[in-house]
Structures are given as structure tokens and as C-alpha cells.
Amino acid sequence: MNFATPALLGFLALGLIPIIIYLINRQRYRRRPWAAMEFLLRAMKRHRRRLRLENLLLLLLRTLAILLFVFAMARPTLTTDALPVLGRLVRQEAVIIDASASTAARKTSRTTLEQTRDQVRQLLLDLEAGDRTALLVGGLPLAETPATRAEMTGESGPAEILGDLEQLAPGWLQFEPEVTISEAVALASDEGGIWTFHLFSDMQREDWLSEDGSEIPAIRESLERLQAAGAELVLHPVGPERPRNVTMSALRPSTGLISADVPISFQVLIENRGTEPVPGIEVEFLIDGSVQGSRRVVVEGGESRTLSFPHIFRMPGVARVEARLHSDDLDRDDARWFAAEVLEAVDILVIDGGWDPVEESSESDWLVAALGDDDVGPTGVRLSPYRVEVVPEDRFLSADFQAPRVIILADVSTMGEAESEKIEEFLQRGGGVFVFTGSRMNNESWNRNAWRQGEGWFPWEPGPAVVDPRRQIFYHWQIDSPEHPILSYLSGFPEAGMGDVAVHGFRRPLSKVPDTDVLMSLDDFEATPVLVQKSHGRGVVLVLGTGADREWSNFPITPAYVCFLHESLPWLVMHDGGGRNLALGQPWTRKISSEEYAPRITLLTPEGGAVPLALRESEDRVSFDLVVPGRWRPGVYELRFEEDTGETRSDAFSVNSRASEGALVFVDPEEIVSMYPSVKYLDAELSGRDEELSGMGSGDLWYPVFSTVLLLLIVETGLASFFGRARRRGA
């Protein structure tokens, strides 16, 4: 016997209350002899035995009613089928359905989820009237997930649950077994009794096992809690046996900076993560809904292909880029979207600390050559997105700080208070600053006006220069943040030459701001930070601990120099818009300045819907926060800003699903059973389920026990009334 709430059994002591009252009532009267007492004593002697029996009978009924009431509240259940008195067992069988993106895969003309619905419907209709069931669904957003509730089966099955079942459609999220199993634990604990949970899933391998094939600790923990609750899990694999599926895994531009009239290519990565070859896959490349190119490829099982689609954007703005494919068994992973912000030529201001008009050389010669400076090819096509203006250090204060998106400080010697204030204002507007340190850098002025004991915009306290003039001692760079947008390409591409960089001189930082990110360091004994990043205001600062020319390293003459600059500058330009391309469910946030404010902002969804949005005032009281909750369908979302004058402007962001949902590789249920506790796998048709699941139901004694309590109270009331009338007649 089991109890849903065994703690209530402590209240069985309440059964002593009628006994205590009875004993108190016997002691509260004192004997007082009087003249007529002799006649009453004679009558009492004749009826004493009968009265005692009547009182004891009522006492027994009252005590028993209290004890059984407490017993019923503890929700007792029996797990045996030998209950001839109470009738058949009450079966408590719930259903867990995997409705993730992978269940949209088709087997012939039906999806995995459609097959699941058929089997679940049969299971629910096999339940008898009075049985209890529930429906739990995983792989859907919270807003689309049916509410979990226990329902007693009627003559036509569980009507509400059957209705929810018919409305289920494949979602876009991943199925997380540990989440739905935890919900099952909560249901079993709240409802009491012995529950059997039938899990219908395609058993996608990535849902159940880690990359190395071992168990997922969160799943084991949830199953252990399910077992402790006295419930068990039965697996029902549903899905295609030999699926054909090619996943569109990625869509990304060849560079992080997209400029009008500058050639660019988009890389499309497609993967066949199944076991069967998929011939004749057509891949289309679209810009703003218009097909720009297509390819037809054959992808073998386990093979991946990268396709390149060149394009030239002619106008600045936000473009909708899409790549899609056709002809496989799963359509949920057949498209990727990218919101491309197309800029005009990007203005770069270089403050040169090594300008030499006599030698006609400067610190920034190699820098300008690597950037291209708005070069135009023989066909008239722009080759570089940058317009570079080089200003000597002595013209620092007279330079235009409004047009440029990035300011590069190339070994600037003196950082005065006025110069530092101009940099500060530039960062507050959201600009990017790149600092190359060098031999000319005056530590005192930089410390006093830029570092300011950690309160300024410069991320570290300038230290001494460490230089070997003979160039016999040198160090190499170590990438500390290979996933950073600046270094992700360089760290995964050894041919770029980052390992060939030899540093003969650098400036050692004495201390740094706690929230500074170290992206690269030297391979010296102290692992000296050499590339750091710090956010300041709405902008970002990037500092390299060596120079932009060949004085302290061979960096400018390595292929890595050009690659590094063309990865760093897009990051400095686009750092505040880096969240334009999101994963499914990730919210989109943007800070709106007072100049960008619009009284009406509308979100246009890929399905054609329009959702009004509201701005929230930021903590700084001079800007606004725009937060768009995570959407649950991939595609490109447009933000439309409308002024009172009727003038509108637009922005956009993209949302993509997890590429892993396209991996139609499934785990053997027997492997799950051997790995996790409290899991069963019934390799049989549902028609034989009653025999296989014999003993899995539970006899819930709450109803018969509570009915007995009511019956006892009725009998006690009737007997008390009958005894009272009999005594009055006898008197």
C-alpha cells in the first residue's frame, strides 16, 4: 500500500478526541443524594447495560469515522489486482509526446507526429471509464503547449485531452526529455497513486545522449525522481526507419562588414546527417524574396557541402537573405535566414603618432595598405568598404569625429585631457576605437587622462615597454577567446599565419579593468595580455599591445595582418548590431536613442502579422530599451518605426532554428533502458498492451474509504436519533 500524502497519517491521533470527550463527560457530574433519587436509581439499573452499549457503539462509529477520514486524505493506493471488494483497478496512464521540429519528418505521406497522434489516440480510447490520464507535450513553446492536467476517462475517452491531441502540430524547438519528465514527476506527486507514463518520440539521439554517447546527467536525475515517486516510463519509438534528410546548417557572409557596391559572397553549409544519400537537392539563394541563383547537388550520407553565392548590394539598408532547399523528408531545417545590414562606405579616422613629413612615412602606412582605402577595380567595382583618413597626432583636436565609425590610434604619444574627452564622447555615441600601442606612448599622460585609475575609457594601466632591439628574443601570440568574432576565423584557419607572428617588443599592462576581456596573450612566462576588449558607453575599445608597423613585430608582413584587420574592423563597426541574427527563442534587444525615437513601432512577422511594441525608458533617462520577446518561428522579422508625420523607417533581424534538429539519427530504445533507471521498452503493438502492462495500474482507495466515512456518519446520526427517541419513550 502506498500513500500520496503520508504526512497526513499523523492526524490519526484525532481519533482520540471522541474518547477523550466521552471520558470527560463521565467525570464532570457530582453525586448529590435527594429524596426522589431512589426511584431513578432503580430505573437506571434496568437500562444501564443497554445505555452503555449504545454509547460505546456511537463512540466507535465517531472514532472510526475520524480515522477513516484522515486515512482517505492520505490518498492510499494498492498495487495489486486482488481487490474483489473494491472492483477493478483504476489505471493511471499518462502520455508524453515529443512534438519537436524533427517530428515533422515524413514517412511516406505522414509525418512522425501524425503517426504519434494515431497511436496515442488508440491508447487513450483503450482506457475504461473511471481510469485517469494526462497529456504532457515537449518541443513546443510555453504559449502553445497544452496545460498539463489529470482527467478521468469517460465513456468516450478523455474528451479534453483528445481535443488537445487533435490540435498538436510539430513545433520548432528541441525535445528536452528532462523537462517533460520533471513535469511528470510533479503530476505523479500532486495526484498520488501509481502512474505509468508512455513517452512517444522519434528518439533522436542528440536528445538522449551526449556527444560521446554517454548519459545526460539531467535526464538521469529526473528519471531517479520519477522512480522515487513510484512511477515509471515506457518508451514508444515512432519515426522514419531510413530517413532522407539534408540540413541547411548555416548561412553566413564571407565578411562581417557588408557595404554597398562591394562584392561579397554568402556561404551556405548543407549537411546530410542521416545515413541515406539524397540526390538532386536544389539549393536556392534569395535576396528580399527574389531568387538570385540556384545549384543542384548530390549529398551522400554523412557528407557536408559548402556552396558560395556571390552578390553585390547596390543600396544601403537591411536586406533579407535566404537560402533554401527542396526534396527531402524534413522541411523544418530546409531554410536559413540572414538579416544583412548593408552600409555605405565606412569612414575610418586614423590618428598617426609616427607621422614623418620629411621621410614621407608614418606609423599607419602598412595599416592603410591593408585596408584598401576605398580601392576601385578596373571594372568600376569597389574593392574595399573603407574610406580612410589619416591625421597626424598634432591635428588630433581639429579632426572630424562625427563622420567616422571607427577611430584608430596608431602609437599616439600624448593623450591630453581634451583628446581623451573627444574619445569619450565618440564612445558614448557607440563608436569603435582601436588602439595600437608602441614606443612613442607616454605612460603618464595615458594613465592620467585615459586610464584614470580604472575609471576612464582605456582598459589597462599602461606599463613599460619590453623590447629586444636585437630581435633575438621574440614571442608568439596565444588565442584565449577562439569563439570571439574577431578570432573565430583566424583560430580555425592556420594558413592565415597567426602562428608566424613574432613579437620583439610590447607594452606590458600593469593592471586592467575587471570587466576587460583578454582575447590574446603572449606565450611568455606571465601570459601577458596583448589584445583586450572593453565596452564603454555604447561603444567598444580594442587595444593591441604592440604597434601597427614593423618596429616591434613582423605582424604587418604576415598574411595574418590583413585577415586580422578585416575581422577586427567589422566587429568595431557592427558591435552594437551583432545581435541582428538570433537563435530560436532568443529575445532581440536594442537601445533606442532620443534621436531614433518614434511614437509607433510595429513588428512585422514572417507570417504577415503585425504586433505593436512599446519602448521602456532606460536607466540613463536619455534613451529607450526596445525588447522583442523571442519568437517561435524562423524567418526575418521587420521593425517599422512610424513618426507622427507619417514618415517610416525600418530595421530587421533574423531568427533561425537549431541545425541539430535535422540530425535524423536515432538511438536504440534498448540502449536507453540499459542506461537510465525506471525506463521500460515494450516492443509490441498497442493491441497487446493490456497484457504487457498488467499490474501497472493502481487501486485508488480514496473514493471507497471516503464513501465509508460518509456512510458511518449517516449511520451514527441515525442511531443517535433512534436511541434518543427510545430513551424518551422509556422515561
What key phrases describe this protein's structure?
731 residues, alpha/beta, Immunoglobulin-like, 5 domains, eight-stranded mixed sheet, 28% strand
Your description of this structure?
The protein is α/β, with parallel strands linked by helices. It has 5 domains: 110 residues, no CATH class; 179 residues, von Willebrand factor, type A domain (Rossmann fold, 3-Layer(aba) Sandwich), CATH 3.40.50.410; 97 residues, Sandwich (Immunoglobulin-like), CATH 2.60.40; 233 residues, 3-Layer(aba) Sandwich (Rossmann fold); 71 residues, Immunoglobulin-like, CATH 2.60.40.10. 26% of the residues lie in helices and 28% in strands. The chain contains 15 helices and 40 strands. The strands form 11 sheets. It has an 8-stranded mixed β-sheet with strand order 20-19-21-22-30-29-28-25, with helices on both faces. Strand 37 and strand 38 form a beta hairpin. The chain is elongated.
| Overall radius of gyration | 38 Å
N/C terminus separation: 50 Å
Assigned CATH superfamily of the largest domain = Class I glutamine amidotransferase (GATase) domain
Helix content: 25-40%
How many separate domains?
5
Shape: elongated
Strand order of the largest sheet: 20-19-21-22-30-29-28-25
Number of strands: 40
Query: Any idea what the CATH architecture of the largest domain is?
Result: 3-Layer(aba) Sandwich
Biggest sheet architecture: 8 strands, mixed
Low-confidence stretches: 79-87, 684-698
By CATH, the topology of the largest domain is Rossmann fold
Can you give the mean pLDDT? Answer: 81
Number of helices: 15
Q: Give me the secondary-structure category.
A: alpha/beta
Give the C-level CATH assignment of the largest domain: Alpha Beta
Strand content: 25-35%
